[in-house]
């Protein structure tokens, strides 16, 4: 009979080992995902009840069931991602209430405070352009910023491009 006892002890150890291994493997699912080094993360996300922005275009908003929280400040913002451009919306109203003009150096971003000025650098050719962010978007998965046709042309973009976006300040001139 000692053989049965040894077998039962072995089974208990195997079950215990399996449980510990499972716990170790599944505990990784509860950790936060790693953040790429170039990804900007605001120090604190402000939720709707804490927003002090007076302008409606800088308050939280929803698009297709997702709530976006515009940043209170873009100081230190730098992010890498995919840029696209838009121009067929000529004459439409931007989130700020101004008329979109594809010949102006403007852009759309989901969460940067409006208006602000950013430098967009095409990582393929090193060309950059300074644009005023005066609209919201792009709302297509995987896109960081939408540039006006003129801004896209200035950095040699055709379609989409990998870019670096850096906050450089508040605009000093009229915003169109």
Entry summary:
This protein has 176 residues and is α+β, with helices and mostly antiparallel strands. It contains two helices and eight strands; from the N terminus they run αβββββββαβ. Strands 3-7-4-6-5-8 form a six-stranded mixed β-barrel.
Description:
The protein has 176 residues and is an alpha+beta fold. It has a domain at 74-169: RlpA-like domain (Barwin-like endoglucanases). The chain is 18% helix and 28% strand. The chain is built from two helices and eight strands; from the N terminus they run H-E-E-E-E-E-E-E-H-E. The chain has helices at 2-27, 149-154, and strands at residues 61-63, 66-68, 78-86, 106-109, 116-122, 128-135, 143-148, 161-169. Strands 3-7-4-6-5-8 form a six-stranded mixed β-barrel. Strands 1-2 form a two-stranded antiparallel ribbon. It is globular, with a radius of gyration of 24 Å. The model is unreliable at 23-49 (pLDDT under 50).
From the N-terminal CA to the C-terminal CA, the straight-line distance is 89 Å
CATH class of the domain at 74-169: Mainly Beta
Number of strands: 8
CATH topology of the domain at 74-169: Barwin-like endoglucanases
List the helices and strands and how they pair.
Layout: H1 2-27, E1 61-63, E2 66-68, E3 78-86, E4 106-109, E5 116-122, E6 128-135, E7 143-148, H2 149-154, E8 161-169
Parallel strand pairs: 3-7, 4-6
Antiparallel strand pairs: 1-2, 3-8, 4-7, 5-6, 5-8
Task: Sum up the structure in keywords.
176 residues, alpha+beta, Barwin-like endoglucanases, two-stranded antiparallel ribbon, 2 helices, globular
């Amino acid at each position: 009979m000692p053989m049965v006892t040894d077998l039962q002890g072995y089974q208990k150890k195997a079950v215990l080992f399996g449980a510990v291994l499972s716990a170790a493997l599944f505990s990784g699912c509860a950790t936060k995902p790693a953040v790429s080094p170039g990804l900007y993360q605001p120090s604190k996300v402000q939720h709707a009840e804490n927003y002090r922005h007076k302008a409606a275009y800088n308050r939280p908003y929803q698009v297709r069931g997702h709530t976006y929280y515009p940043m209170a400040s873009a100081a230190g913002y730098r992010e890498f991602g995919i840029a696209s451009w838009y121009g067929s919306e000529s004459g439409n109203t931007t989130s700020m209430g101004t008329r979109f003009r594809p010949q102006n150096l403007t852009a759309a971003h989901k969460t940067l405070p409006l208006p602000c000025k950013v430098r967009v650098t095409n990582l393929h050719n090193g060309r950059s352009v300074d644009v005023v962010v005066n609209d919201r978007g792009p709302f297509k998965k995987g896109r960081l910023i939408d540039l006006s046709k003129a801004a896209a042309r200035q950095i040699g973009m055709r379609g989409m491009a990998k870019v670096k976006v850096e906050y450089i300040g508040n605009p000093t001139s009229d915003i169109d």
